Amino acid sequence: MRGSPSSNAPDRSRKGYPVAAGVFRAAAKVLGVAVLFVAGWALTIWAAGDRFLEVSGVVTDCAMSEPISGVSVRADLLRGIGEEPLVVRTDNDGRFGLLLNEPPDSAVRLTLTHPGYQPVTKVLDPAPPHGELIRWCLEASQAAAN
Asked: Rounded to 5 degrees, what angle do the CA atoms 55, 56, 58 make?
């Protein structure tokens, strides 16, 4: 019997699948918003590419001119938008890099500490040009020398 409730044949009297079409339309809207969001974020990063404060350097032992690994480098913003203090450590070659979401003309205070060495504090106002490597040496502390 055609169209009877007991028939296993699908009811083709309706055109399309309105529930599925609604789900697909909603998914397309969400996907469209997500694509716009990602594109806006990428454009912001690209446009602000030169608006970051980048500081890189190398730390050595003053007496032996050897690189020091594990030096704590703390950056405190003195002038800028308001970045929280950032702490990084030097690698095995004594190198470190900081990237702050701050304009390049910001001022930052760097404090370098390592057990067995005297701490060093330097104010960078303004920060060195992008890509310029800063070189510092740490003096052994009196307690470490004895």
From this structure: 140
Q: d(Cα 76, Cα 84) in Å, to the nearest integer?
A: 7
This prediction has a pTM of 0.61
25, part of any domain: yes
For residue 85, give the 3-state DSSP assignment.
coil
Q: Domain range for residue 130?
A: 53-145
Instruction: State how many domains the chain has.
Output: 2
65 and 36 fall within a common domain: no
Mean pLDDT taken over the chain: 77
CA distance 125 to 112: 17
Amino acid identity of 125? D
Question: What is the per-residue pLDDT for 55?
Answer: 86
